């Protein structure tokens, strides 16, 4: 789960992938507007084939959003086959012919694919009047995809291209570097797109086997939000034919103390990216709340501990903190983007801020302000149907469930000053950290002399 603002349940970078002109790309965000929870509270039930269906009715607009979540994601990939989850999920929505593409365009239906550490996800949006017609096309494709050689080669090329784009973004590249430092095998490290070597090694049978193993009803969660009373029934009919085979064993992703304390990546850019990342514990209701609060205190906007590095010391044009919380562990990144000539000074200043927070802790006033800010961001990010349905599915998939989905405010209020300061001391410990610096120069980390 990336906790940018608050609730992004994922592992590493979530990938929203453009799939032709009918597809919409954007980050995987999250959850519910509890202020109107009594009006549109979601219900959950298990279908006859073992699939979980979560549904809510919301009459705000005549649209429908559906999430098709498949447990697994990056953690389910065999070593050396990074990118497999992406290939299988992307190919599961490969439109078979031009006529169906035109039909979907004409209906203004939109789709995107996301792959995270703990799951893969297909997000559908359509006008409610076109729900049956949209699902008539998409449910058939997803339930019986064609893994032909030409399609696989095309999607592999797309994955390679997306990976190159990912590497051009210093924030994303820094995140991946930090995640690799903490991840073992199996684990959450590496790009969701894999790389040229791993993609070349993935065969059609690997993709087919992965699909058959993971795209089974008990391993899937559907979440739907619509103004239509019959939307849940329509979705159930569309996806009720998925096989009820036993889900694959989830296994455990390995998280470890980094073997290296500083990672320096050379990029010929005018700016530099400087971060310090810290390991987070396994995901629980309490750890999620603590991670979101610490993220906010450390780096979310004016008033955060990192803000003076930008506003007063002029060491950065952007400062931020992002918590990525996953089932078996996560990372908290405190980072800034600065001029290439200031990276050494910036890293020293960043470490100074983190050290001060670790040693001094926070006050009750800090904690109260963070609760308000986190909760406000939670509400703001969960206005749209796609965001709400994504987290309805994701909270369920990672084991937090609907109770947590609707009860986050209580969880935040339950965090005491002792709780947050103990968490800070544990998470921000120097032995639990790795620094990542990206920018021009030698491979020698800032602050050290090259010999």
Write up what this structure looks like.
The protein has 451 residues and is an alpha+beta fold. It folds into 2 domains: 220 residues, Metalloenzyme, LuxS/M16 peptidase-like (Cytochrome Bc1 Complex, Chain A, domain 1, 2-Layer Sandwich), CATH 3.30.830; 178 residues, Metalloenzyme, LuxS/M16 peptidase-like (Cytochrome Bc1 Complex, Chain A, domain 1, 2-Layer Sandwich), CATH 3.30.830.10. It contains 16 helices and 11 strands. The strands form 2 sheets. The protein has a 6-stranded mixed sheet with strand order 1-2-6-3-5-4, sandwiched between helices. Strands 7-11-8-10-9 form a 5-stranded mixed sheet, with helices on both faces. Strand 4 and strand 5 form a beta hairpin. Helix 2 packs across helix 5 and helix 2 crosses helix 8. The protein is globular, with a radius of gyration of 22 Å. 50% of the residues are buried. The N terminus and C terminus are likely disordered.
In short:
This protein is an alpha+beta fold. The protein has helices at residues 37-40, 84-91, 98-106, 131-143, 149-167, 170-182, 196-201, 204-214, 231-239, 285-299, 307-311, 343-360, 364-381, 385-397, 401-414, 417-427; strands at residues 43-46, 52-57, 63-71, 110-115, 119-127, 220-226, 262-266, 271-280, 318-326, 329-339, 433-439. It contains 16 helices and eleven strands.
Note the gap between the termini: 41 Å
**With helices defined by DSSP (H or I, 4 residues minimum), what is the helix count?**
16
What is the 3D shape?
globular
Helix content range of the residues, please? 40-55%
Order of helices and strands: HEEEHHEEHHHHHEHEEHHEEHHHHHE
The CATH superfamily of the largest domain appears as Metalloenzyme, LuxS/M16 peptidase-like
Determine Rg (CA atoms, Å). Answer: 22 Å
Fold-level CATH name of the largest domain: Cytochrome Bc1 Complex, Chain A, domain 1
Specify the CATH class of the largest domain. Alpha Beta
The tally of beta strands, per DSSP, is: 11
Mean pLDDT: 88
How many domains? 2
How many strands, what sense, and barrel or not for the largest sheet? 6 strands, mixed
* CATH second-level architecture of the largest domain: 2-Layer Sandwich
Query: Looking across the biggest beta sheet, what order are the strands in?
Result: 1-2-6-3-5-4
β-sheet strand percentage: 15-25%
The assigned structural class equals: alpha+beta
Low-confidence parts, pLDDT < 50 over ≥5 residues?
2-39, 445-451
